[in-house]
Amino acid sequence: MAMAVTVIYDDRASGASSAVEKNDELWLSFEDLTASSGWEHKPQGLCLGDRCVPIPPSRRSEFVAADGRFNLAAFARYVEQPVVHDAAAGVWLFGESAALRGQALRSLEAPDFRLPDLDGTLHALSDYRGKKVLLLSWASW
Amino acid sequence: MYREFADRNFVIVAVALDTGGADAVRAFIRPSEPIVVPAPMQAIMGWSAEQYAGAAAPTYPCLIDERHVVAEQYNMKNVPMAVWIDEEGRIVRPAEPAGATDGFRSMDRKTFTLPSDIADAGRASRARYTAALRDWIERGAQSRFALAEEDARERVAGPTATDALAAATFKLGQYLHERGEPELAKPWFDEATRLSPDGWTYFRQALQLEEVGKASGPEFVARLRSLGERRYYEEIRLDPTR
Known about the structure:
The structure holds two protein chains of two kinds.
Chain A: E1 3-9, E2 12-22, E3 25-29, H1 30-37, E4 40-42, E5 45-48, E6 51-53, H2 60-63, E7 69-71, H3 72-78, E8 83-86, E9 91-94, H4 98-106, E10 114-116, E11 122-124, E12 132-138
Parallel strand pairs in A: 1-9
Antiparallel strand pairs in A: 1-2, 2-3, 3-7, 4-5, 5-6, 8-9, 10-11
Chain B: H1 2-5, E1 10-17, H2 21-29, H3 39-45, H4 49-55, E2 62-65, H5 69-74, E3 81-85, E4 91-97, H6 116-139, H7 149-155, H8 161-178, H9 182-195, H10 200-210, H11 218-226
Helix pairs in contact in B: 3-6, 8-9, 9-10
């Protein structure tokens, strides 16, 4: 039975009404798959922009069902992305893989971000290119 | 220090890791009355009254990171942590404690005082860090504190798969909390702390969401004590050869 869940992907929350949950599996229609995660199901595999991840033919049934749904949770685990799921709240959250974060840091290219100040004005780290930056974290707590 | 160097192609970008958002940090960034710093902290910082007045009204960008995005991107597990980024946007020193030491752990919580040798060591650590920063601002890549690429890369610790899972777990807790379901959020915050025992940002932020001030309350003190000989702030290796 299809149901509605909230999918949080790349820090963006969206509703998916086609979801079928089985324990740690989350099956979504191809439409919901793309709407919530950006990944598109194509003949060459699952694609996000120029990047395509082939689905191994021997394991196809783990990812693609006969009813036209795709198991996003299994795919996330396949690409070593963390997946957490609160069954009571109906929320699935997909995080960033350690490998991608680590690669980004080890490239020594400072990861960019865009955050508001107290007045709500957005500042990106890259706005300060051309200056030396001391990036300093703190907290009120 | 910032005023001294602001016109020398240097900027501080301060990022508050605060799920509580602007309301949580406003009094620190734009105080309506002077910020009261406890005496032991003053002893460690070793600032003059003028320096406190200046620090109370920063002129550099103070950004608010409700989702702790920067902590995840730069693999920061505590605050305050700092990263040095050069004019081309390259990391020359990955995240490390910005001069902060474990000295505050020696505070007598009854008398609220700090042994003078510990306070001196804390001040000295900050002074060394500030001197190193000054050297880099003045000399750029020629500064011995600007790490060579291989040294900088070697110091990037993690994140591990467990760190990534802890980050996702914490984020789910934050989302549920934001949605107005703190009782659903709590187990995820607890799980994030279990997965990442040194993830102090998770532990303390979650406490603070339960009640303002709790981040420095008895739970924090108890967890700090359970560290025993282990460090709260990792050692600062200013010297590139160490």
